Amino acid sequence: MGVKLTVIGSSPAWPNPGSAHSGYLVESDGEGRLLLDCGPGVLARLRTNRLADVDAIAVTHFHLDHWGDLVPWVWLAQSGLGPAARPRLWLPPQGRGELATFGTVWGLEDMFESVFSIAEYEAGVPFAAGELEVTARPVNHYGLRAYGFRVRDSSGRVLAYSGDSGPCDELRTLALGADLFLCEATLRSGSDDALPRGHLSGEEALALADGRVLLTHRPVELPVPAGTERARDGLVIEL
Question: Is 100 helix (H, G, I), strand (E, B) or coil?
Answer without folding.
Answer: helix
